[in-house]
Structures are given as structure tokens and as C-alpha cells.
Amino acid sequence: SLTNGQMVCFDEGELIPLSPPAWLRRVVTRVAADEPAHAGVHFHRVPIGASDATPFLEAGYDAMGLGCVRPGVGAPAHYHLPSDLPHNLDLETFATSLDFAEALVRGIYAERLTTSGHDLR
């Protein structure tokens, strides 16, 4: 869910304690620092369950979940509830989250290009 809370990158917690690889954490930190609107993006330990990144991390792939959580609650608003409806989306947060996700993809591409020495297109 990229709305209704504070944008975070997930550290997996309850099922299997896993974190994104160090290089990916560095990219997140750099991308978050590059834009004032993304300054609040941080890593958040998933307290219950797991994100979709968990099976990939467990299998040895570089992966990370993104989402928004409500401060003080640690979970997204409306997630898997009857109120999880389009009219309950916070469109301003959604737009900011999409901007961060796009900047993150660009940052990942630049990082992998730099470390591999090859054009990844």
C-alpha cells in the first residue's frame, strides 16, 4: 500500500528476520536524502506477518518491500479491512510514494550500472 501513512522500506520481522542487502539500503538512504519530500522514508521492521519480498529474500534474491504505515501503529490504514476502498486513498501521499518509488528504481539502476560496468537495458 503506497498511501495512508508514512512511506517506509520494510525489514522483515515476524516470520523470518531478514533485511534488504546493504547495497540496496545505501540506495534507499541516498534517494531519500536527495529530495526533501522523501526525507521521512526510513526502514521499518514488519511487526506482524511479512511483505511480498520475504520469499525472494529467503531464496537469496535481492529484494525489498515498500509501503506506507501509520506512525505509532506500524501498519497501513485500511489494509485488508472493509474500508480498503478507493475513496479512502490519500492521493497526495500516493503521488509522493510513486515519486519515491520511481526515484528508487532510477537509483537502483544507477547503482547496478556503476557496480557492474554494463548497461543493464
What does this structure look like?
With 121 residues, the chain is an alpha+beta fold. The protein is 36% helix and 12% strand. A three-stranded mixed sheet has the order 2-1-3. Helix 1 crosses helix 3 (91-116). 25% of the residues are buried.
Strand order of the largest sheet: 2-1-3
Give the CA-based shape: globular
- Report the sheet-strand fraction: 5-15%
Multimeric state of these chains?
A: single chain
Poorly predicted runs are none
CA radius of gyration: 15 Å
Q: How far do the termini sit from each other?
A: 28 Å
Kindly report the average pLDDT value: 88
Q: How many helical stretches?
A: 3
How many individual β-strands? 3
| Coarse structural class | alpha+beta
Helical residue percent?
25-40%
Order of helices and strands: EHEHEH
Q: Mind summarizing the main beta sheet?
A: 3 strands, mixed
Summed up:
This protein is of the alpha+beta class. The protein has helices at residues 22-34, 54-58, 91-116; strands spanning 6-11, 42-45, 66-69. It has a three-stranded mixed β-sheet.
